[in-house]
Design goal:
- It is a single chain.
- The protein is α/β, with parallel strands linked by helices.
- It has 3 domains: about 40-50 and about 65-200, Rossmann fold, CATH 3.40.50; about 220-405 and about 430-450, 3-Layer(aba) Sandwich (Rossmann fold); about 455-555, GMP Synthetase, Chain A, domain 3, CATH 3.30.300.
- About 35% of the residues lie in helices and about 25% in strands.
- The chain has a 9-stranded mixed sheet, with helices on both faces. A 7-stranded mixed sheet has the order 9-8-5-3-4-10-11, with helices on both faces.
- The structure holds 5'-O-[(R)-(benzoyloxy)(hydroxy)phosphoryl]adenosine.
- This is (2,3-dihydroxybenzoyl)adenylate synthase.
Amino acid sequence: MTDTTSRTGPRTAPDVVGWPADDAARYVREGYWRAETLPGLLRSWAARSGTDVAVVAGAERLGYAELDARADRFAAGVAALGMVPGDRAVVQLPNGTEFVVALFGLMRAGVVPVLTLPAHRRLEIEHLTRLSGAVAYLAPRRHGGFDHAALGREVAAAVASLRHLVLVGDGDGTGAGGVRESSFAELERTPAGPLPPEPDPGAPAVLLVSGGTTGKPKLIPRTHRDYAYNARASAEVCRLVRDDVYLSCLPAAHNFPLACPGLLGALGAGARVVMCPAPGPEVAFGLIKAERVTVTALVPPLVRLWIDAAGWERADLSSLRLLQVGGARLMPAVAAEVTRALGCALQQVFGMAEGLLNYTRLDDPDDLVLTTQGRPLSPADEIRVVDGDGRPVEPGTVGELRTRGPYTLRGYYRAAEYNATAFTPDGWFCTGDLVRVLPSGHLVVEGRVKEVVNRGGENVSAAELEEHLLGHPAISAAAVIGLPDPLLGERVCAVVTCAEGAEAPRRKVLGAFLRERGLAAFMIPDEVVVRESLPLTGVGKIDKRRLADELGRERHV
Ligand code: OOB
């Protein structure tokens, strides 16, 4: 069994790199990959759970059969616009029923959704539209004060492949200059018509956006069968059952809330998914209470907010049994507060849109749950930790994580040149993450290869220094970045925010604090910048790239 490598136009390199035939055959033989597609799975979920509620968003409560029917009509609408199997469509929809309908409807029409985040702007949307050659852009007309319709028109003027804007919400405009505007609701009113044949289970189901905070985002093809396995195995690890209620706080287009186990894992288990329009405690706590939410997922900066809010708001979080935390390093001190403050179990998740997922298990001892980022999801995940020359390190020492497996990509979409550096010739994905592996098989994330500041030849680990900075009572968030320096090559800059009511610590005071903790002189920040807040990525991680750009700009004016 080989994988589809689709081609369009005069390209010489394939768009998608498949798994070698012998690995693919093994994944099928061993039951990781099944002959299933995501839209086909929705059909069988609807047959199983027909009248059960699948998705809750605002006042809408969508049953499984209803979702299936809406996906059919949307698929018919997409086909009626002239989109054909193999086309790509950029999806930028906030957490709501439209996201779910568009996701399954597009896939049912054979169109591959490019899943962008609501926070993406012109730079990302134009880049991802061009890279994917998308024919359509699906978005709300306006959202959070931002005019997505105008953005769509701008991108259409710049990228020739883009012919359709499909917009949610009232408004008018039929498009100009070769781009056609359609209303999402109207598309959904199309009577269900004949559908194209089900896609190949080995073909890309979705294109995810890479989460790396350096460089331009890349696209990650996830096939039907690899993503179905990803969601199913994740649901098993989280013991999701029909009675569970999953709250999608993070933007649903991100891999974590989408398939780890997220929306897809919850629907597969026959559970209910509640779409949360914003991840802050103000909105989320009310939904947890009203919908009796049992499981949700957050990034670390939000965990802090939730813990603080649970202290002063009289929140009823009694239904919550599991909080998954991942996406960035969770400080052990914060991890230790979760169960006490929120009254639920914690699960650490170290994952990536590229594939590999690590979870602490629900029956792991507390110390592993608090201090590690979990162990690989699948028995078929292969893990290697290597030094700068690509040689395996001694067990238990820090090195770069490389991986292969049944749900880890073998190449980014249309990125032959980059793929040559991000993958070894025998298919290992070089994650860029620095980890160490404990005897139990659990991984501890120690930072990123590129987040080591080279200060005149001394290596300063940003993650390590950030952890020490957060040990200071006046500091509530910290990001360490390297700034160009004429003498040192790079100097260490710590950008921090102050804890509420605390006075900003001066550099000297911080230096003394860090030396007292036993840090070497070269680890002491050369510069400390105090900010009101730190910029965040679309999913809510600290955005170091933007921070570095901002600091760079400030210094050149
Ligand atoms: C998740 O996916 P992405 O693609 O947005 O980001 C992946 C990167 C990883 O390579 C790693 O550098 C970092 O985010 N990361 C973590 C982490 N989880 C992810 N770093 C430290 N500790 C963790 N627990 O972020 C993602 C995808 C699926 C599930 C969970 C997170």
